[in-house]
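Could you join me in thinking about how sequence relates to backbone shape in a protein? Would you write everything just below, so we can both look at the same thing?
***
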Amino acid sequence: MAEPKGDIALIGLAVMGQNLVLNMNDHGFTVVAFNRTVAKVEQFLANEAKGTKVIGAKSLEDMVAQLKKPRRVMLLVKAGQAVDDFIDKLLPHLEKGDIIIDGGNSEYSDTNRRCKALEAKGLLYVGSGVSGGEDGARYGPSLMPGGSPAAWSHVKSIFQSIAAKSDGEPCCDWVGPEGAGHFVKMVHNGIEYGDMQLICESYHLMKDLVGLNQDEMAEVFEDWNKTELDSFLIEITRDIMKFKDTDGKYLLEKIRDTAGQKGTGKWTAISSLEYGVPVTLIGEAVFSRCLSALQAERVQASTQLKGPNEPKFGWDKKTFINNIKLALYASKIVSYAQGFMLMRETAKELGWKLNFGGIALMWRGGCIIRSRFLGNIKQAFDKNPDLSNLLLDNFFKDEIHRCQAAWRNVVGTAVMYGIPTPAFSTALAFYDGYRSARLPANLLQAQRDYFGAHTYELLDSPGKFIHTNWTGHGGTVSSTTYSA
């Protein structure tokens, strides 16, 4: 039998899978392509992969036989049961030291489980975040691999070759053990939810309060993209504003205002609750999509529920648009600060060592949240790898101080005119809470102790939990102490 030629196999030939195969081929790797529906393999080889070195496989057995050892098999299939099913089918064909890579949007807890189970069988497992959409997959995605550390040396050259580059550096590095790669991708997607919601709120204010038309808004986003807000999402928003349908009318105005979600933003919000980290902006971005889904109810409520009777908007348009820009920037800083807080706390809980500057670099190019701003985050963690919060870095502290008056003006004006800005508002509330030396949780602890004997600590003796008989007819026995 001829010597195997395949450097890596890829299972799952939907658009992302096909584009990753072609990307790997462009960088000199021989890829064995397989799909559960084998006709799709033949179709791919006859069309998109025509003239390439891509090898088609008729079965899993055929696919594995064409791979050099240690065999590298990448799955790009739907998260959940499909991943487990393919792993089960692959196991009889693989041997110790072979590597399975999951490049889908799997939940990090599933990756933790799979990594441990496969390592026990002598196999290596990688759970890698892949971001950048179809275009990224084809020409350079952001890749966030984690899992069995011994696997990295075997996949590093492929991953770093095909990844996007930022200042010559690949937007890909080893994240950490077990599900660390998928966890970082989950937080990336949560931040993406937040960025998108902030841009949508900026659009809402410009359209319904300032009264700009789409050409004018496209110009605003064009200008913003030349500033500290330079990013992929601002760029595509400009393009969407300009886009006209075949009838010459703007397509955006025809699109139904109800948003879907695939779950990663929700997972980020759930993780933040599990680890007790106030990732409020991503939470609000998820809830805003849920509220948008209540479209029929909203339309009905709009005919019955009154808003404020404010006079016509009287601000200087140019000044207020600049205020929106600064509010967007300040809120974005808070969103990323919250995302990195969640990663820091999770890493501490699970015993992972995460390189936060490296993660910022991985997001600097190729991915959906790529932006100039991530270079500043990398610098902050390069200066101080133990930085507890981005808001305490001198650069970000100065930027927030510069934006603060405009930010407060935008949130206050939106409230006065009845324009919902949940992400702007919650970002500002978090900032004010975080900079407060004293919050009203002392009253909250007293309330809990009053009705449930949950105990409280005194300022002068932290760590000592006591209960007070507030009514005079309660007992002195307290409930079990727990963290709220």
Remarks:
- The CA atoms of residues 217 and 241 lie 7 Å apart.
- The two ends are 64 Å apart (CA to CA).
- The chain is about 50% helix and 10% strand.
